Amino acid sequence: MPLIPATILTGFLGSGKTTLLKRVLTESHGQKIAVIENEFGEENIDSDLLVTESKEQILQMSNGCVCCTIREDLRDTLQLLAAKKRKGLLDFERVVIETTGLADPGPVVQTFFMDDEIAETYLVDSVITLVDAKHANEQLDTRQEARRQVGFADQIFLSKTDLVSEQDKEALIHRLKHMNPRAPIRAVHFGEVPLKEVLDLRGFNLNDKLEVDPDFLVAQDEHDHGHGHDHEGHGHEHGEHCAHLHHHHYDDDVKSFVFRADRPFDPARLEDFIGAIVNIYGPRMLRYKGVLAMRGTERKVIFQGVHQLMGSDLGPEWGKDEPRHSRMVFIGIDLPRDIFLQGLEQCLVAA
């Protein structure tokens, strides 16, 4: 049986998760989707959708989708759905999991890597974070959960952009990119966006998307780099003022930075260093990902991790004339940037 793609849907209270889930469960979209809803969440789907005598709390919807509430833990629910699918009792092609509005999505993501049965049945397609453009700055200022949700995202959808000015929207986008440069950001009205553009992103797969840092990180402050390091993910030239931030000062604890190198890594040194920093800082390392040039292989090494869980895979061969640059992005909570960058520098093959 092919792996079942799973989309993890997160976002702070009022960001639009329920609107999207209702649409999935009721619209004639032709997809067979199992939606897993946490019944202890603050934003439950309307109760009339969930009324059932079954103690398993699984309801087949009229459009072919399946709605399921979590009674115990996510692992049990995923195993139950997979077992019913294998027996032909349920028919679904993918899973959407809603986290509660106050949840850190990290433990949800880790479920797919820590349990062998789950890992052999499901594949995390992407983590989608919904951000309420009207209230985002206040939430990001005051709630660490909201900042973590942004840090974990493979894709960020901005809702309620019609309630803010274009200037405020651009300032928010700038802030979100500063926190998580690897996640594309787009404004959405969930009644208009095709679901295939929401649910089939392949943002989490190791071999599917090799790019680490979007154009936001291309420009570098010339005064900052002896080794091609990015300056806190900030793409402005030296002395350039962020005029569009219009006096909104923030110091988010979720930040990102990028390491770049032209020399290949020594595999043993890199493994030792990554193991050491994950052991110490793993709980604060939300997402990290890289495309690496490694001594001893002609292929790209694709590397990523979530908290203490990490893995690598061989990608395609480097092109004949393609520069063999390594790029790694780290997104986390108050990570010691200098320790990471200096340590990685020492893992490179000597010039």
CATH architectural label of the largest domain: 3-Layer(aba) Sandwich
Q: List the total number of helices.
A: 11
Radius of gyration: 21 Å
Order of the strands making up the biggest sheet: 3-4-2-5-1-6-7-8
Shape, per Cα inertia axes: globular
What is the makeup of the main sheet? 8 strands, mixed
In total, how many beta strands?
Answer: 13
Family: Belongs to the SIMIBI class G3E GTPase family. ZNG1 subfamily.
Pfam families: cobW, CobW_C
GO cellular component, one term: cytoplasm
Protein name: GTP-binding protein
What does this structure look like?
- With 351 residues, the protein is of the alpha/beta class.
- It folds into two domains: 4-197, P-loop containing nucleotide triphosphate hydrolases (Rossmann fold), CATH 3.40.50.300; 254-347, Hypothetical Protein Yjia, Chain: A,domain 2 (2-Layer Sandwich), CATH 3.30.1220.10.
- The protein has helices at 17-26, 47-50, 74-86, 106-114, 116-119, 136-142, 144-152, 166-179, 196-199, 267-281, 337-345, and strands spanning 4-11, 33-38, 58-60, 66-70, 94-98, 122-132, 155-159, 185-187, 254-261, 285-292, 299-306, 309-317, 326-333.
- The chain has an eight-stranded mixed β-sheet with strand order 3-4-2-5-1-6-7-8, sandwiched between helices. A five-stranded antiparallel β-sheet has the order 9-13-10-11-12.
- Strand 7, helix 8 and strand 8 form a beta-alpha-beta unit.
- Helix 6 packs across helix 7 (144-152).
- It is globular and about 65 Å long.
- The relative contact order is 0.12.
- The model is unreliable at 39-55 and 212-249 (pLDDT under 50).
- One of its GO terms (cellular component) is cytoplasm.
